[in-house]
Amino acid sequence: MGVALSRRNAKVVDVGISNNMIALNRKMNEDEENYACIVGDVEAPNCFEEKSFDAIAVFFMLHRFPNINTVIKNISLWLRDGGIVWVVEPNGSNPAYKLSKMIASMLPRRVTIRLTSINEGGNYTVDDYLRAFPNCRFPCDVKASFSAPDHRKDNGEDGLKILKFIVAMRKLTFSLVRRIPIRKINQGDALILRMRRTLVHK
């Protein structure tokens, strides 16, 4: 995503906490003129200077933090007045997502690692996000959910045959949830939100 934007004349800075992943990213994109990637901790307000960006994109990251308010507060520092933040996150409002994580918590660790991130935190719902962002002057003007295809497969390793069954059951559960009469935004397995930072009137 960042590289695609940089090729459209946007200056993009990608940040991650893993030295190895950032090193790999730099190697893969060393010829990109408008793209940079750095090691940084987005829970630290000094990761970037205040009002450094016109837009910030957060993809499948916030749910990894025990306190999303810390990161959102920092985003509000780094974004210029009137700037836009796009958020794509797992939909904690979806009953199938909650059930999936509950089952994963009871599985052997080597299977769980293959199903989800070992760093995942809470089941943040759409209402959690819609409360947290406005507290930092981010009224939401776009909110929706969607279901992305799940391409995870069993690779046939001994002792992991159960993975194929689990992934199939997960797909079935999400499919069934989309048929029950709940809020439409709760039916997708991922959320997409867009907020614009409100101006400060002096």
Could you characterize the architecture of this molecule?
The structure is a single chain. The chain is of the alpha/beta class. It has a single domain (41-196), classed as Vaccinia Virus protein VP39 (Rossmann fold, 3-Layer(aba) Sandwich), CATH 3.40.50.150. The protein is built from seven helices and six strands; from the N terminus they run αβαββαβαααβαβ. The strands form two sheets. A four-stranded mixed sheet has the order 3-4-6-5. The protein has a two-stranded parallel ribbon with strand order 1-2. Helix 2 (19-28) links the parallel strand 1 (12-16) and strand 2.
Number of helices: 7
- Calculate the terminal CA-CA distance, rounded to whole Å: 36 Å
What is the typical, i.e. mean, pLDDT? 78
Q: What is the CATH level 1 assignment?
A: Alpha Beta
CATH topology grouping: Rossmann fold
Task: Tell me the strand percentage band.
Answer: 15-25%
- Radius of gyration equals 19 Å
Q: How many extended strands?
A: 6
Number of domains: 1
Q: Note poorly predicted spans.
A: 112-119, 154-159
